[in-house]
Every structure is written in C-alpha cells, then in structure tokens.
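User: Reviewer 2 asked us to show a designed sequence for the structure in our supplementary figure. I'm pasting the structure tokens here. Could you produce the per-position amino acids so we can include them in the response letter?
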C-alpha cells in the first residue's frame, strides 16, 4: 500500500480522480533541481517532462508515463481517498515497484540505505 497527498488545484489531482492511478516517486538528493522543476511547473502550462528531459517509459500496471531516471517509483492504483483537510490523501495498492538494479541488495529487496533521499 502507498499513500500520496495531492492538493486539489494541481493538474495531477484531476488526472488521479479521472484515471484512478498515480506514480509515487522517491527522489534522491542528486535530483533536487529536477524535483524543483517538476514541483513548481504545471503540465497545464507546458510539457514539463519534455523540457526537463528525463527518460520516460510506460508504467507496468498504471498505464501512465513513468520516469526512468528516478531510482524508485511505485505505481499506485487508487483504492480509497480521504479528505481530511489539505491535501486530499489517496490510498493506493502498489501495482508495481520500479527500481534501479544497483539498489537491490543480496536478498532481492530494495536496500533503502543505498539511497541518499532528498530532504525537504
């Protein structure tokens, strides 16, 4: 299970409501500039992904674009939401997890200590 909070004024909010899917990304500190660009520009106004230039692929379960340059992304299929204030929280079943092979430990699981997560 995975949960994301999305502000209703965001372009992605309407897309999640319409399609019932989302992609949650876990961003490393090395991608701070890209993260800022994605967060401060709207797809309503520009093709921000094309301008940023990340590799795009097709998500396995969600049928939405997936950012290939992100070391961990989780495809979420919405199973519920909660309007407990601001933002609205979407609860999703993790349909598929994409990860860089270098982050997978000997056990076959993601070794979270190998990621220098972006701190906000």
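Assistant: Here is a per-position design you can include in the supplement:
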């Amino acid at each position: 299970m995975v949960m994301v909070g999305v502000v209703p004024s965001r372009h992605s909010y309407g897309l999640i409501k319409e399609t019932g899917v989302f992609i949650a990304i876990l961003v490393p500190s090395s991608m701070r500039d890209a993260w800022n660009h994605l967060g401060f520009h709207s797809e309503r106004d520009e093709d921000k992904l094309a301008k940023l230039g990340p590799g795009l692929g097709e998500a396995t379960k969600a049928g939405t674009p997936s950012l290939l340059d992100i070391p961990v992304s989780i495809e979420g299929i919405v199973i519920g939401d909660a309007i407990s204030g601001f933002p609205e929280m979407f609860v999703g079943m993790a349909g598929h997890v994409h990860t860089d092979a270098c982050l997978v430990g000997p056990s076959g699981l993601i070794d979270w200590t190998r990621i220098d997560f972006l701190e906000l």
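For the response letter, you might also mention the following. DSSP finds three helices and six strands in the chain. The chain has one domain: 2-114.
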